Amino acid sequence: MTEVFVEGFGVSVGKKSERLVVKRRGEVIFERPFFDVERVIVSTEGATISAAAIHECSRQGVPLEFLSYSGAPYASVISPNLGGTVKTRRAQLLAYEDARGVELGKSFATGKLRNAANNLKYFAKYRKAKDRRVYDYLYRRIDRIEDLVRQVNAIEGRCADEVRGTLLNAEGRGAALYWEGVARVAPGFAGREGRGAKDLVNSLLNYGYGILYHRVLSAVTRAGLDPFAGYVHTDRPGKPSLVLDLIEEFRQPVVDRAVFGMLGTGFKVGMDGEKLDEPTRKLVAGKVRERLATRVKHRGKRHALENVIHVQARSVASFVRDGVLYKPFVGSW
């Protein structure tokens, strides 16, 4: 199936018979049957979308996803029928008040920490022979992150509220160690900055995370879960806490590997003022999509990383609803 990426000014998205049609200034630049479209990503404020196209996307289960120029997700249009599993949502909300919420919170945290450690191991393995000082620097941080994993595994509590602060503290300490390691091996990267970043590397990361966010949101919704009812990230109106919980398992193996791999192989990237220029946005989107299509081993089988996101979302649903053990996804190195 095809992912449609809408970029640039003067673009229109419409429906012609049973086909999705994208035009630029009246000229057709893309046309595909709706049944062969996986999703539509709009990363421009200069596009129009017809009501007929929105209706058909909803009917066919094709999500429409909207990103700002910086990669921040600001809207998603999906069919209301995709997440209509009442039993799962009731169980999800009740799990917040008992030990299930504790176990899920711990799993999300350990998944994030273990993937951070494994990404540093990936960066380190090519430096063991040629730059031992950098290798040792990275492994000192890896050891401390793995110690945080052991601390998280030992946390006990009766409900998510009792352990949330401890989990967030461990995640924050692990993130600081991880980005220290990344800064040592990534030229031009001084440290992590989230929304509002104006430097190239953080802008690339933020844009990639925006693409990943929509994948996780889609997976959570299709699994019948409420994206706003999480266990580690705090509840706040308009904040999709469960999406932010689950995305932590995938930031490093999907986006960080794609972005730093791209930078390490000399691809030309650039800024247009304080945002990524259009060719760079297209490039990073393509590299993240390539990474999502990479097949990895998970639970004894090989899956595309994008499918693993759906497997994990369904596993959250199975855990809260039926008690089936949840295990975080941990990428290889």
Protein traits:
Four Helix Bundle (Hemerythrin (Met), subunit A); 2 domains; four-stranded mixed beta sheet; single chain; Ribosomal Protein L15, Chain: K, domain 2; globular; alpha/beta; 333 residues; CRISPR-associated endonuclease Cas1; 10 helices
Notes on the structure:
InterPro entries: Cas1, CRISPR-assoc_Cas1, CRISPR-assoc_Cas1_C, CRISPR-assoc_Cas1_N. This is CRISPR-associated endonuclease Cas1. With 333 residues, this protein is an alpha/beta fold. The protein folds into 2 domains: 2-62, Ribosomal Protein L15, Chain: K, domain 2, CATH 3.100.10; 86-322, CRISPR-associated endonuclease Cas1, C-terminal domain (Four Helix Bundle (Hemerythrin (Met), subunit A)), CATH 1.20.120. It is built from 10 helices and 12 strands. The protein has helices at residues 51-60, 86-95, 99-125, 132-153, 160-185, 200-222, 241-247, 251-264, 278-293, 305-322; strands at residues 2-6, 11-16, 19-24, 27-33, 37-42, 47-49, 64-67, 73-77, 271-272, 275-276, 295-298, 301-304. The longest helix has 27 residues, at 99-125. The radius of gyration is 20 Å and the shape is globular.
